[in-house]
Design brief:
By secondary structure, the chain is α/β, with parallel strands linked by helices. The protein contains 12 helices and 9 strands. Strands 3-2-1-4-5-6 form a 6-stranded parallel beta sheet, sandwiched between helices. Strands 7-8-9 form a 3-stranded mixed beta sheet. It is an enzyme of class 1 (oxidoreductase).
Amino acid sequence: MSVRIGFLGLGIMGTAMARNCRKAGHDVMVWNRSPKAAQALAGEGARVAATPAEAAAFGQVVVVMLTGPEACEAVLFGPDGAAGSLGPGQTVVNMSTIPPAFAREAAQKVRATGADYVDAPVSGSKKPAEDGTLVILAGGREATIAAVEPVLLAMGKKVARCGEAGMGSTMKITVNVLLGAMAEGLAETVLLGESLGLDRKALLDVIMAGPMANDLFRLKDPMFRADDYPPQFPAKHMAKDLRFAAEAASQAGANAPTLAVLNTLYARLLDRGLGEADFAAVIKAL
C-alpha cells in the first residue's frame, strides 16, 4: 500500500533513504535546506517542497533525517516548520541522531498537535542506507510503530522496538559507543603492529582471516590498507554521537571510561580538520 511521505533532510543517509521509499512505491515529497539534492530526487519521481511545512502537510508519515537537535528544532518547530502543518492521523518519524531528552521533548510537542511521534534513529552508514539494510531503532507507542513499519522497512531490514519515545535515541548512542570503540581498537592495533615492525597489510590479513573479523572490520579494511578514509559515516557525526552518550552517561551516573577516551580522540580528530572523513580516520588522532 502506497503511503504519502514528507521527507525532510537529504544528506548522505537521507538521500538514499528517500530514494528507497520511492523504490518501494511510496509517494514521496522531499525537502532539503540546499535544493540540489532535492532536485536530483525530483528527476527520479519525487515531489519537491519549498518548506518543511509544505512537506509535512503532504505526508501521512513525515520522516526527519537531519544532523542533530538544532536542525531538528528549526525544521520541526521554527518558521515554516513542519509542526505547523501537523494534525491527527499523521506521524512524525524522527530518524536523526539526537539526545534522548530532546527526543522526549519533541514527542510531547508533536503530540500536542494531534499527530504522533516515533523516535527511530538507525544503525548503519552509507552503504546499508543505499542497500535498504539499516537497522531501525524505534521508540514510541507500539500501535504507531506498527502502523509506520511498512515505511520503515522500505529503508531497513529490521525494526527493533526499544520502548517509548526517547529510547530509540538511547539505543543509538549506546551502540555507537561500541562502534567507535571497535574502530579505535582496530586503528590502535594497526599502529601498534607497525611500530613493532609488522607490515600493515600482513597484520590486516591475519585479523580478517581469524575470529576477530566482523562486518565492520571488513567494511573498514580497505580504508586502513589504503590509508584513505572516504566518508561512509563522517567522523563529525561520530563525535556528536559520543558527546550525546557522554552527556547521558553523566546524567545517569554511569561509569564509562572508554567513552571518555573516545570523546577525547574524536575531538582531536575534528581539531585536525578531519571531521568530514570517515570515523575510521580516528587512526589519525592516535
